[in-house]
């Protein structure tokens, strides 16, 4: 079996041959982050998928992320190396369920988290990510907003708007498991450390945090802060990027068990094989993609 160095060299050779770009989410395994052209959060990767040059996009993440790239760049070949890497939250609402809610609240705007299927995006007015949810909510003309699927992100956004938000009862299975008791234990273990949490966390956890931010927002905060110790309340994959980019800081996981198994399904062998075979390829039917594209592009157009 080839070692990682050999596989990395194969990936670099195939990347050049295919004219490919490799995008990796902040929760990906360290070796995958290290071979990516860009590592970031959902908003950064969505923007990159729309504008970066390349005939092939290798999306190291989960299914909805690759779908988003395919919607924004239908002329490109979009690959998802871990074909079975899904987002449980995205599966917590269907287009049919959203259509039923819309029929009950016909005057409401629809904001959908990017962690949704293409079909749900197609039934939405505008997408958001964890880093821009507040800005998106406040940009919508309607005073009543259906927000799907993450109830915790919806309730966080509600803190910063006068609009009425109707949250769907979905959640992230990683962030929703973080409890106030875990926060207290982490603070006892690391007194004086700054606590940063993701807005997918429960409201009672957010109430205890020093700062709330998306994954890349957490990285920016840690790197720019004058403080030196941090408790990180999100999926543990981000600790690799923090160690790489904020070398003078010490970061501790709020919960060492905050692990997204789907984000860990990608490995170097799967990336290499995807580049070699141009499979698994992600496509979205144009009748769905054209409608979903509008919701995504309206988000990307916000300042």
Helical fraction: 40-55%
Order of helices and strands: HEHEHEHEHEHEHEHEHEHEHEHEHH
For this structure, the CATH topology of the largest domain is: Rossmann fold
Low-confidence stretches: none
Helix tally equals 14
Strand content: 15-25%
Rg result = 19 Å
pLDDT average, as an integer?
96
Number of domains: 3
Q: Please write the CATH class name of the largest domain.
A: Alpha Beta
Structural class: alpha/beta
Can you count the beta strands? 12
Distance between the termini: 48 Å
Q: CATH homologous superfamily name of the largest domain?
A: NadA-like
CATH architecture descriptor name of the largest domain? 3-Layer(aba) Sandwich
Report on the structure:
With 303 residues, this protein is of the alpha/beta class. The chain has three domains: 4-86 and 263-284, NadA-like (Rossmann fold, 3-Layer(aba) Sandwich); 90-172, Rossmann fold; 175-253, NadA-like (Rossmann fold), CATH 3.40.50.10800. Helices cover 42% and strands 16% of the residues. It contains 14 helices and twelve strands. The chain has helices spanning 4-18, 30-35, 42-51, 63-72, 95-104, 118-122, 133-139, 151-158, 180-189, 203-206, 215-224, 238-245, 268-277, 286-300; strands at residues 20-25, 38-40, 56-60, 77-79, 109-113, 126-128, 144-148, 164-167, 194-197, 211-212, 229-233, 250-253. The strands form three sheets. A four-stranded parallel β-sheet has the order 2-1-3-4, with helices on both faces. Strands 6-5-7-8 form a four-stranded parallel β-sheet, with helices on both faces. Strand 7, helix 8 and strand 8 (164-167) form a beta-alpha-beta unit. Helix 1 (4-18) packs parallel to helix 13 and helix 11 (215-224) packs parallel to helix 12. It is globular. The chain starts with a helix and ends with a helix.
